[in-house]
Amino acid sequence: MAFASFNEFLAMGGHGPYVWTSWAVTAALLGGIVIHARSERRQLLRNLQRRARRERRLAGGRAPVSHQRGGHVDDT
Amino acid sequence: MWTFIHKLGSPRWFYAISARLQPWFWAAAALLLLVGSVWGLAFAPADYQQGNSFRIIYVHVPAAFLAQSIFVAMAVAGLIFMVWKIKVADMAAAMMAPLGAAMTFIALFSGAVWGMPTWGTWWMWDARLTSMLILLFLYFGVIALRGAFSSRDSASRAASVLAMVGVINIPIIKYSVDWWYTLHQPATFTVTSRPSMPMEMWLPLLIMLLGFYSFFIALTLMRTRSEILRRESTKRWVRDLAAEEA
Amino acid sequence: MPGTETPMTDTEAAMPFHREPRGGLMVALRATLKRDLVLLLRRRSEVLNPLVFFALVITLFPIGISPDPELLATIAPGLLWVAALLAALLSLDSLFRGDYDDGSLEQLLLTPQPLAALGLAKVAVHWLLTGLPLALMAPVLGIMLSLPAGSYGILALSLALGTASLSLIGAIGAALTVGLSRGGVLLSLLVLPLYIPVLIFGAGAVQAAILGDGVAAHLAILGALLAVTLMFAPWAIAASLRISING
Prior knowledge:
The complex is a heterotrimer. Chain B is mainly α. Chain B has one domain. Chain B has eight helices and no strands. In chain B, α3 (about 55-85) packs antiparallel against α4 (about 85-120), α4 (about 85-120) runs antiparallel to α5 (about 125-150) and α4 runs antiparallel to α7 (about 200-230). Chain C has one domain (about 25-245). Chain C contains ten helices and no strands. Classes of the chains: A mainly alpha, B mainly alpha, C mainly alpha. Chains in contact: A-B, B-C. At the A-B interface, α2 of A face α2, α3, α4, α7 and α8 of B. Chain A: It is a single-pass membrane protein. Chain A: This is Heme exporter protein D.
């Protein structure tokens, strides 16, 4: 251990602000990158699932859908 | 051998293999970065000249190393894409560029902050900082060029060519900037190159370096997987996969 | 089927042109050089504009900084080099733009001759009508910036050597961005970082000449940079043109 107390550790021999800003910016950037990558992946999977659901719905109910649409045209 | 490479080059195989590799690299990155940080910040002895401000080295040097390595990796991926038309290589290159720019930014920022206690000024036209700045512009160029094309294939090939041109130029830029610096500036105290660094200071640096590299590999694998989902979203296996994970 | 729609005599007359003439590459090179020279000389403003820009930028500095001859003399080498570099950059966008717009660039790609050589010919013309005039004009502007005597020759020589590399490197960027409608700013973003080594050694040569040091080393490095770019750039230009046309 290079420091006697926790306060000394924070002070970094008077260079505290410089050391801690460098480390904080680095940590924030790395963390932000990871969070971005995770949310990107989740978003993509969600989009794919939404599309899959929509396609399943369209494939399953094609005939009723076209019938309904025809009905609509008749109504208006 | 070739069949293996082409299998790895197919997005589906890459997706499967990277899923197995990825957790290991994430674990290695987390462990190494944690150990390196604690060791570097709290246990490594203070520098006899710079005191505790030298602890910035543990983020500055790995970021600077990685910034240069990523550009080389990007150019190699570009070459693989251009020669063998392996799409995964281009996806990886596209994902590497922003990370490389971020690493260059970290190196620049920590270098500038480090400059205050050592030089007494936020910015010096120091050889290392100057070539880092130029590297940042090179990254911006590659990212901007990729974004400027409307066709994805053209964008990929143009970015690959630019990355290769850039990688040939990086050593030339580096040496000419070094030469320029020795000519113009009085010999100041160089921050990072010291004749001998005691083992207790050097080991945490090595650990941090390895941690940064693991982070880079893990993140590139993860984002390349995302990019595969994005670009291959019409393929059958991707749809099955999405349905599976639902 | 030829001959069914056109008269026989026409196809016979056209036949010899389908065969590749002897010394095809030299013929193609000479034709490209001649065509580009004629085209550029007809659009005289495109040749003159970079020169006017160069003079104008140099005029701005004494106004913006100070008319003090001593101060100007110290910054003159770098100033002249930076201004010449920007002027050369300004002319790059038109290097392939005209040919791209009228479709002759596609014809260039279709020729059986290697595209790298033809691209090199186009770059040579660009340098002849941009880099060389800039180099010849620089000493005059050097007088206005009270550049110390004895460095004028080196200024012109270093610029002539350096702008050749600049044209070659710049042509890669121009080829990459020619297919984009708003390629201008992007072009400078791509190309300027790559210009830095040339700038360092070009301005260094002039500075060394002022200080009375040997300039041979600087000029040799500028020559080496030119040799390296001459080796790699044509292939990159050809690849970039293919990307821009086919994409």
